[in-house]
Amino acid sequence: MKFLLILIVLFFLIINISKSQVIDVNIKEVIEVEATRIDYNSTITDGKPFKVNIELFNPGSTGYNARIRLDIFDKDNLIFTGWSDEKQFFPGNRKIYDLYWYPSNVKGKFKASIEIYFANEINKIKPINFEVKPSEKLPENIFEIIDFRTYDDEVVFLVKTNKTVENIIFMPSNFPTGWIFEQAKINELENDSIKIINLKYEPSLWKENSITINIFTEDGKYYTSKSFTLKRENSFWKHIYGIINSLRVFFKF
């Protein structure tokens, strides 16, 4: 009798479960980005870099990679394009970008256009207007670029200086249209020391072309510019020259 009672209870439980509704909760993924802060100087003197400091925030529910593009216009003419590095953003992350343009031998009023590239989307920020005024003091040329080489996704070179300097920016310019070439920054370079610099890039259709590497300090006191040919080398030599460059940095030759 007890066994029969258990069977009856199980029977009614199975019926109730079969009649119950299945609740499917789908949380919609949201891809968003916000520029929570944009700092810049509206007036600079010729010979000092134009710097844009931007804080990005991911308020959505989906993570992504993001980078920033800076375009400088003289009236309607595009005269410079700069790219930041690419950073990872998980939901709730805040990260800061610095982008630079060095106005060598130019003056007048300019416009900066800023675009955020994230999750295969583009978010445009309201353009910035600024002015470059002439400067009486020219920057010193103290940097030497050694052994410039091009690989599949980066260019590598050595930089040397005859002074101890801080906050050094490496700004590619005049590279092929449609390519991404990241800027870079190091905190210090000591007198007569050598440092290896790697600048990441993403080409469109590959072709040999030219590029200009601009090196300057954030205060504008020192500036060097030199052009090179982008001639891609076999990846095998990347490891060989990597060892040679490390020895040159250590022994300073």
Structure description:
This protein is mostly beta strands. It folds into 2 domains: 34-133, Immunoglobulins (Immunoglobulin-like, Sandwich); 143-251, Immunoglobulins (Immunoglobulin-like), CATH 2.60.40.10. The chain is 14% helix and 51% strand. It has helices at 2-19, 235-251, and strands spanning 34-39, 43-45, 50-57, 64-74, 77-83, 87-89, 94-101, 108-118, 121-133, 143-150, 154-161, 165-173, 180-181, 184-189, 194-202, 209-217, 223-230. The strands form 4 sheets. Strands 2, 4, 5, 6, 8 and 9 form a 6-stranded mixed beta sheet that branches. Strands 10-11-15-13 form a 4-stranded antiparallel beta sheet. A 4-stranded antiparallel beta sheet has the order 14-12-16-17, with no helix packed on it. The N and C termini lie far apart (97 Å). The relative contact order is 0.15.
Low-confidence stretches: none
Bin the helical content.
Answer: 10-25%
CATH class of the largest domain: Mainly Beta
- The percent range for strand residues is over 45%
The CATH H-level superfamily of the largest domain is: Immunoglobulins
The radius of gyration computed from the alpha-carbon positions, rounded to a whole number of angstroms, is 27 Å
DSSP strand count: 17
What structural category characterises the helix and strand content? Answer: mainly beta
CATH topology term of the largest domain = Immunoglobulin-like
Question: In the CATH hierarchy, what is the architecture of the largest domain at level 2?
Answer: Sandwich
Largest sheet: 6 strands, mixed
Termini separation? 97 Å
